[in-house]
Amino acid sequence: MNTKELIVGTANKQLIERGYNAFSYKAISEEIGIKTSSIHYYFPTKTDLGISIVQSHSKALADTIEKTKDKNALEKLNKLFLYYKRLVQDDKVCIVSALTSDINTLEEPLRIELIKFSNEVIAWTASILEEGHSQNTIKVMTDVPLKAKMIIANLMALIQITRIEKSKESFDQMTGLILAELTIN
Amino acid sequence: MNTKELIVGTANKQLIERGYNAFSYKAISEEIGIKTSSIHYYFPTKTDLGISIVQSHSKALADTIEKTKDKNALEKLNKLFLYYKRLVQDDKVCIVSALTSDINTLEEPLRIELIKFSNEVIAWTASILEEGHSQNTIKVMTDVPLKAKMIIANLMALIQITRIEKSKESFDQMTGLILAELTIN
DNA sequence: GTCTATATATAGATAGAC
DNA sequence: GTCTATCTATATATAGAC
C-alpha cells in the first residue's frame, strides 16, 4: 500500500469510528507517522481527502458488484447485509451516516460525491430485489426503488441504534426480521 | 425565555441543523449576541451544554406523552410520526442521529444522557404498540420492544436519506408504507 | 516526497473588572 | 450576569529547505 492509499485508509477509519470531528490531518498524521504537511501534498484540502474517502467506498462497492455478478439474488442480498454486519462488529458506521449529520457543512463537491455513492448503494439494492423477484426468491413489492431505499435506511439506522445500545445482539435479530419478511421460503 | 433557555435552544438548533461540528460556543455567541464567556457562565463545559440539550428533548417528549395520554394508540402513533415529519420539514435530524456518529468522542455523562433519551423514545413507542394491540388497531407482533426499535430506527434513517435526496416526498411515501403495515383497517 | 517552520483561524476555557 | 482580555490547544493550510 502506498502513502496515498494509507492516508485514505486511515482517514476513513477515523471518520467512521469516531465521527467527522476526529477526522483531522493531525490525527491521521499521528497515527501513520507522517507530518500534516505531507498529507497536504497528496490532498491539498480536507474536501479533497473527503472525496477520496467516499470514492474508495464507491470503488469497493463496484468490486463487490462485479465479484457477485454470477451469484443469485439471495446470495447478493446476504452479501449486502454482511457488509453492514461487519461495520457493526468493528464499531463503525456507514460512511453515509457518518457524513449525513454534517451534510449542511460539507463543501459542494464532497456533498455531490456522497449523494452519488448513496444512490449507487440504493440502485444495487433495487437491482437485487428485481432479480430476486424474477427468480421467485424475493417477495414482490409495489415500489422497488422505494423498498430498496427503506432497506438501506434500515441498515444505516440499525447500526446507529446498535451503537447506542452497545449490544450487537439486536442487530442480528432485526436484520433477521427484515430478511425473513423479504424472502420467500 | 431567559438567557439560559435561549442558549440551549440556539445550541440545539445548530446541532441538529448542521451537525456536531457547527455546535460551538462561538457560533452560538454570534447568533444570540452574547460573548462566549457568558455562555461558560451558564454551562462551564461543552459537555454540560450537550447534556442540557438532550434533557430538553427528554422534557419535550415527557410533555407529549403527558398531553396525549388520553388519546388512543393510533392518535399517539400519528403524533410520533408527526414529530419526525416536522424535523424533515425544517431540514433537521433527530438529536440521537446528530450525536450518534460522534458517540465515541462524547464524554461519558453526555453519552449516558443520550442513551437514556433514546431508551425513552423506544419505550414510548413500545407502549403505543402494546396499547394498539389491546385496542385492536395495531397489528400484533412477536417482539414488541424489537419492533419499537425498528420503527424508531426507520424514522431516524428516513430523515437522513431524505436529507441526502433533498426531496421530502419519499419521507411521506415511506412513513405511509410503515403505517399501513402497522395498522389494522 | 517529506521535512521544519510558520500563518491564520478557531476551539474550549478561565481570570478578573464592572 | 456580562464584559474584556487572555490562555492553551488544535484546526486547515502554505512556503520553502532538503
Automatic annotation (TrEMBL), chains A, B:
Ranges where the HTH tetR-type domain occurs: 1-61
DNA-binding stretch(es), residue numbering of this chain: 24-43
Keywords of this entry: DNA-binding, Transcription, Transcription regulation
Pfam families in the record: TetR_C_13 (PF16925), TetR_N (PF00440)
GO molecular function: DNA binding
SUPFAM superfamilies: Homeodomain-like, Tetracyclin repressor-like, C-terminal domain
Gene3D superfamilies assigned to the protein according to its UniProt record, in alphabetical order: Tetracycline Repressor, domain 2 (1.10.357.10)
UniProt KW Acyltransferase keyword: no
Name of the protein: TetR/AcrR family transcriptional regulator
Organism: Chryseobacterium pennae
